Amino acid sequence: MDALFHAAPYTGYVYPNETVIPWTVLIAVYPYLTGLVAGAFTVSSMYHVFGMERFKPVARFALLTSLCFMLFVPLPLLLHLGHPERALNPVLTPHWTSAMAAFGYFASFYVLLLILEAWFAFRPDIVEQAQKRQGLAGWIYRILTLGSYDVSEHAMRHDHKWLFALAAIGIPSAHGLHGYVGFIFGSLKSREWWSSDLMPVVFLFSAVISGVALLIVLYVVSCRLRKIAVDLACLKGMAYTLWGFAMFTIVLEGLEFASLVYKGREGIEVILEYVTGPLVIPFFVIQFAIGAVTPILVLSYLIWRGTTGRALIAGVTVSACLVLLSVWMMRWNVVIGGQEIAKTGKGLLTYHMLIFHREGLATALALTVAPLGVLFAMVRFLPPWADRVAPASQAH
Amino acid sequence: MKKTKTSLAARRAFLRKLGRAATITGAVVGAGTAGVMQQAAAKSESPSASFPTPEYDWTHHRWGYGVDATKCIGCLRCVEACKRENNVAGDAHHFRTWVERYVYLEGEERPHIDSHHDPVNIEASGSEKEYRFANRYKGKKVEKAFFVPKLCNHCAHPACVQVCPTGATYKTADGVVLIDHKYCIGCQYCVQACPYGARFFNEEHGHSDKCTWCYHRITKGLQPACVEVCPVGARVFGDLKDTNSPISLFIRNNRVQVLRPETGNAPNVYYVGIDKEVA
Fold first, then answer.
1. Contact B92/A at CB under 8 A
2. Alpha-carbon distance A281 to B90, whole Å?
3. CATH architecture type of domain A10-381
């Protein structure tokens, strides 16, 4: 049987109640997932709202990715709650002064929006399959048509309007949802490491890069699996997006850290002791040097040299993997880091992640990988690819 | 073309129906919620109806708490009494009240701070359930030393109440911050928000927990357990609405201060005899 709680070792002086760290790795997984959702949605919207044609090959795939990850967003929270069966209490009787109170509404709204948008985006395919398939699959497709089999040009124009409107509403919704997560941390005045006005913005930008990076990796892998050529124009478009937003993100994170140190409020000595001690590897080395500076340098080089072909694919994919790692470390360093710095301003705690526990590493990994499994199935059920024939386009 | 129109019209009609259904559902849920809210509001207006002590009227009291750190001897009877009275887990990581020891050694600028959860203290007492400070500074030259009892500050603007997504934690009319354990979802946002580390998570029952100033006692005219048991009168409790209560006298006769006033939480535990290192 699991122990009821695990006390964290500490140095200096920490409040006795602080020795049980309240928010575990799952609370780091949660903003990671919402970030991937918002980022993937951004790519989808670049095509559906802003009409950037080069994103067409991944636009519908991005939408599915966003939806699959969004379905798992509530899970880390539910697994964390002391009373998951009361999870609807905040929705039934929201306490509006709480930054968390509206989350249920926001998330539900966004899930509905994603489902609706996906329905409009995939309606022609659903109708086609409903008419073609027999048996259980055909039955499911027929239900999904919602009785509407009209795929005439006129109907498609009508659908397109809906798609555009939903995608447009989706932009503030997706980013609002994620910025909101940043606000939950940034608005807490009890922790100096969290209490920053920049927190929601940093969360947002890192969300965009994580989602774009995820799509890059998934797109390249999917092309391998489907044995078709990678659309280099599309890949380069995503690389540009990643590059630009990554530069903004690193600047914002740098500014946030600089202002924290420069203000040097009470407890800054312990924060500095923390960042120059236990945080050197996870923060400076992994999050910044490996995960942020390296991909920016690699992408700068690729774009500067006009690299194309396999080298471009390899370089962009590696950069994307590094960005995914960096954003994960950012979530970890914020959520766990904030709690490792004691509220006393006089001590440091050490969070020990358990492996097989309701809130342990295995659960965290499962929650991160599970959306990919669902996506894998979803892509087979609703193929999102625009490139039915292998394209041989070149990068612009 | 005609077919298209019919189909589009059908789809529009379907969407319209969907919209109407959503509106009706919304109205029903809204009405239901409003009913619950009204009930909740009605409850908070007249507590005596559902109160364990019907004769108690919370609008007639405003409780306050004082700590005279110059008197505290660090015997930890208060901690023990609190743990027993409120059935708090008997370990070194869950406290509704605790006592901190500040020791300045000769030639050192910063104090050594410890409390019951310090491994040295636990080892010396032999158990997490034995509440004692180890004599760890024996033979050292102590320049200044004092004890500081800590507990929930029952703030006037409590950050914990602000962040609670369900309203399970709330401020009573008599100035106490309480938790409805049957409504708390156990998200621990309040644990994060409290700058004083006064809240903890009750793993056994899956809800947040903290000091209630022994609300079950004070509403019957008794003192909180920690105040009752303190052998030196370092802990003072009373009604701020009564100008001759111990707490009113304590605040009037001393220059009191509160912990971390810069948070804007406006704490209601008033301290005498603490120094700059206490936070």
1. yes
2. 37
3. Up-down Bundle (1.20)
Q: Report how far residue A60's alpha carbon sits from residue A63's, in angstroms, rounded to the nearest whole number.
A: 5
pTM reported for the whole predicted model:
0.90
Please tell me the class of the B50-93+150-279 domain: alpha beta
In this structure, how many other beta carbons lie within 10 angstroms of the beta carbon of residue B206? Answer: 17
pLDDT in tens, A273-326: 999 999 999 999 999 999 999 999 999 999 999 999 999 999 999 999 999 999
How far is Cα B256 from Cα B172, in angstroms, rounded to an integer? Answer: 24
**B117 part of contact set with chain A, CB < 8 Å:** yes
Contact B248, B240 (CB under 8 A): yes
ipTM of the modeled complex: 0.93
Q: Which of B11, B186, B197 sits opposite A148 (nearest CB)?
A: B11
Residue type, B197: G
Among the partner residues A20, A158, A339, nearest to B93 by beta-carbon distance: A20
Q: How many Cα atoms within 13 Å fall on the side-chain side of residue A61?
A: 25
Closest-CA residue of chain B to A153: B4
B167 — contact with chain A (CB < 8 Å)?
A: yes
Q: Where are the domains of chain A?
A: 10-381
By CB neighbour count within 10 A (0-12 exposed, 13-18 middle, 19+ buried), where does A173 fall? buried
- Each residue of B120-149: pLDDT tens digit? 999 999 999 989 999 999 999 999 999 999
